[in-house]
């Protein structure tokens, strides 16, 4: 039984189509990396999964409930099933880090408990916030003000918020964009380990294709608002990655994630090849090349 099921879900913003009709099933406990070039629609899709963007057509079932067929208040309750960590977390600048982290416990809490959490967190809550921050190497910033943090530290506060939340579905939008490579990998490992330990479902958009292929069992790739690939990480070969990012080589993995011969890879590409007008580079045309690619 899937936790999330999308049936021909389409997203538009005015005249612009952000996501072409897309069908997807996500089971409880899965860990999925969402990849694709800039502008492919990763954030839009995550916002749709978070019930923050209303689809223009299609259905989204979360926890067996047709989210957009529910009343406003029922959908609001359903949102307690998930927590979205946005790429640029809108943390109140004057807030203490501990309180920002504990905001992850507000969904579903009573008004009285929410006020206590925000204005007078208990010792136990402070301990939980500290544990989450310490796991992300920010234990010493518990009582700092948010506006004293760097961009990368703020991103980790948003991850710590997930760690203290009760939501079974974690949606994370490019959590590593402001982190150095080592810290990025460590932070992602913390998140994945915590999700695994507690049976959470994790969907995480990433520009670090190598990390996505190495650390996530399932990859969903978007290009131009379309599903380009959905399948196991080991099925996402270098040729498919090249086709996914064709025209956006700045985002290609710097080194191949698996031992291989680059010439060999080029020979493996069955689909048509094209010459990039700007660079003159011979590259695979953006045509899916594996049977797991959704067209
Ligand atoms: N509200 C909107 N109105 C019009 N266009 C939008 C809107 N939101 C997003 N877009 C466009 O939709 C496309 C997909 O945007 P989205 O942010 O989902 O991509 P992304 O894959 O997350 O990109 P990035 O990796 O750069 O964050 C982009 O071309 C963007 O400009």
From TrEMBL:
MF GO annotations:
ATP binding
SMART domains noted in UniProt: AAA
Region annotation (Disordered) ranges = 251-295
InterPro entries named in the record = AAA+_ATPase (IPR003593), ABC_transporter-like_ATP-bd (IPR003439), ABC_transporter-like_CS (IPR017871), P-loop_NTPase (IPR027417)
Q: Which Pfam families match?
A: ABC_tran
In which residue ranges is the amino acid composition biased (Basic and acidic residues)? 258-276
What keywords tag this UniProt record? ATP-binding, Cell membrane, Membrane, Nucleotide-binding, Translocase, Transport
Where does the source fall among the domains of life? Answer: Bacteria
Q: Does the keyword ATP-binding apply?
A: yes
- The ABC transporter domain is annotated at 4-249
What is known about what this protein does?
Answer: Part of the ABC transporter complex HmuTUV involved in hemin import. Responsible for energy coupling to the transport system.
Instruction: Please report the name of this protein according to its UniProt entry.
Output: Phosphonate transport system ATP-binding protein
Originating species: Roseateles terrae
């Amino acid at each position: 039984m899937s936790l999330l099921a999308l049936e021909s879900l389409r997203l538009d913003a005015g005249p612009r189509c952000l996501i072409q009709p897309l069908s997807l099933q996500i089971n409880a406990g899965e860990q999925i990396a969402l990849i694709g070039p800039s502008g492919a629609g990763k954030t839009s899709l995550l916002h749709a999964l978070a019930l923050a963007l209303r689809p223009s057509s299609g259905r989204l079932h979360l926890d067996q409930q047709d989210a957009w067929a529910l009343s406003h208040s029922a959908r609001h309750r359903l949102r307690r099933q998930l927590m979205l960590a946005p790429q640029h977390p809108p943390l109140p600048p004057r807030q203490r880090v501990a309180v920002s982290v504990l905001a992850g416990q507000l969904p579903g809490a009573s008004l009285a408990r929410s006020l206590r959490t925000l204005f007078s967190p208990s010792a136990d809550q402070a301990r939980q916030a500290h544990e989450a921050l310490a796991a992300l190497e920010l234990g010493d910033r518990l009582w700092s003000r948010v506006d004293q943090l760097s961009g990368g530290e703020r991103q980790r506060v948003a991850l710590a918020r997930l760690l203290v939340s009760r939501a079974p579905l974690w949606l994370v939008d490019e959590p590593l964009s402001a982190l150095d490579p080592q810290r990025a990998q460590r932070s992602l490992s913390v998140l994945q380990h915590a999700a695994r330990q507690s049976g959470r479902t994790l969907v995480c958009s990433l520009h670090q294709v190598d990390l996505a292929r190495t650390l996530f069992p399932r990859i969903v790739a978007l290009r131009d608002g379309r599903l380009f690939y959905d399948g196991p990480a080991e099925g996402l070969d270098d040729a498919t990655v090249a086709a996914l990012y064709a025209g956006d080589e700045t985002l290609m993995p710097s080194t191949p994630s698996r031992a291989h011969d680059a010439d060999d890879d080029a020979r493996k590409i069955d689909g048509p090849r094209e010459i990039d007008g700007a660079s003159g580079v011979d590259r695979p045309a953006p045509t899916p090349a594996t049977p797991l690619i959704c067209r």
